[in-house]
Amino acid sequence: MKSFIPNFEDPPESDDSGDEIPPGGIFPMIAVEDQNDEASEGDNTENEEDADNHSDNNDGNYDNGESDNLSEAEISVSDESDTDTSSSSDAEATLEEIFGVKPAIEAQRDHPPDLEADSGIVDVCFHPSVELLSTATMDGEVIIYRYSRECVEEVTRFSHHKKSCRAVCYNEDGTVLYTISKDKSLAVLDTQNSAVKHHIQDAHESSIFSFLPIDEFLCATGDDDGTVKIWDLRKKKSVFSFKCGEQTVNSLLADEMKRTMAAAVSDGSIAGFNIRAKKLELQSEMYGSEMTSLSLVRNDTRLVVGSGEGTLFIFKWGDFGFHIDKFAGHPDVIHCVTPITDRMILTGSEDGNIRAVHLYAHRFVGVVGQHKVFGIENMSVSSDGSLLATCSMDDVVRFWNIEYLYDVEVDDRKKGNKKINRGFNLESSKRRNRFEFYSDLPEVMESDDEGGPVAGPSHTMD
């Protein structure tokens, strides 16, 4: 093995040759065997040069005067030039090249850095056209940030709510930001002028929990006591109110035509409303766990509902009496669901994991990312679909690049393994799978033992 570390305890004996210490010291940082090779080559070269010089001098073809009169300055310049050339080549070698390690993750970042907030973040929402992200905090503030791959910086903040702000949501063009709060109020913010446009106090008799923009003038809210209201912002008053349960309305959703609206209630039911007729049309049977979140897939024909038992229930849109399909396997409560393609959704769970789930065929694709301590409260996908922002009660908003998910293909002819796939870390995750530790090692490793080669570590998944 080559040695790069000199032994200072046993220095080499002097040969009293009177040689000067070479530039760089006695122990140049090169391999020992390379040094010996260079030394032998140097001796041979010097002997040959001496022989040639002797021959030239005898022939009278070499001018000793020029050789003897070389100035010390010229010699010094020559030595310095060689030294600089050597040091510059050494400087070009990076730690990654020398030790064969990958560059730091931060140097390869394809998403904004984590946003560390002053208090718990309960909701996030991307602006529909520019690189802005709005957040709702436990302190009742609404903070808007500008983000890039290099940094996240605050643009403005609003403090119009007296208690925790529970949701933020942009309208279609991003000129308006809606906010709701535990203080029972609904507010409309003018984002272009950073001003509060409307602030409806005591909009509900109990704290508002969920919000849905319907069109330019209509929006809907749901509170902690099961009441759903539709608001006409031109009149600044509700035009419809219905009590669809006794517990919290966790989520509201409407189809693209804005004709039907669904509400997920903590008592375990789904309520369907006719927006134009302003009436309740249908309410589902009572399920054994709370209904927490809503999402539309398959060209708005299927409603996916997250539940407290970790099961995704699938309803035919508009027919909310009883589910037509389901997909179990999440180990804990599903707090939020958002679609990214017509057959793929992202789920945020109480166990702190964000998972990609493919529907029809039903498969866990894997873990997109995670928060360390608390469950996922809410998530939002950027307008171009490349970024996902998630929030948790750990006071951190995390960003994930999810562009690779659009290229995922699922073979519906093969049965998936729920237990393995639901914990499989995808490329955006901050964690790596255990089996990947050995992925670059050969199956059979050479051995100096007489017994021959030995089997390498298994690459099979745990």
SSE blueprint:
Elements: H1 32-59, H2 64-68, H3 72-92, H4 95-99, E1 115-116, E2 121-126, E3 132-137, E4 142-147, E5 152-158, E6 165-170, E7 176-181, E8 186-190, E9 195-200, E10 208-213, E11 218-223, E12 227-232, E13 237-243, E14 249-254, E15 260-265, E16 269-274, E17 279-283, E18 291-297, E19 302-307, E20 312-316, E21 325-327, E22 334-339, E23 344-349, E24 353-358, E25 363-370, E26 376-381, E27 387-392, E28 396-401, H5 418-421, E29 444-445, E30 454-455
Antiparallel strand pairs: 1-28, 2-3, 3-4, 4-5, 6-7, 7-8, 8-9, 10-11, 11-12, 12-13, 14-15, 15-16, 16-17, 18-19, 19-20, 20-21, 22-23, 23-24, 24-25, 26-27, 27-28, 29-30
How would you concisely characterize the structure shown here?
By secondary structure, this protein is mainly beta. The protein has helices at 32-59, 64-68, 72-92, 95-99, 418-421; strands at residues 115-116, 121-126, 132-137, 142-147, 152-158, 165-170, 176-181, 186-190, 195-200, 208-213, 218-223, 227-232, 237-243, 249-254, 260-265, 269-274, 279-283, 291-297, 302-307, 312-316, 325-327, 334-339, 344-349, 353-358, 363-370, 376-381, 387-392, 396-401, 444-445, 454-455.
Describe this structure in words.
The chain is mainly beta. It contains five helices and 30 strands. A four-stranded antiparallel beta sheet has the order 1-28-27-26, with no helix packed on it. It has a four-stranded antiparallel beta sheet with strand order 2-3-4-5, with no helix packed on it. The chain is globular, with a radius of gyration of 35 Å. Residues 1-21, 24-91, 101-105 and 458-462 have low confidence and may be disordered.
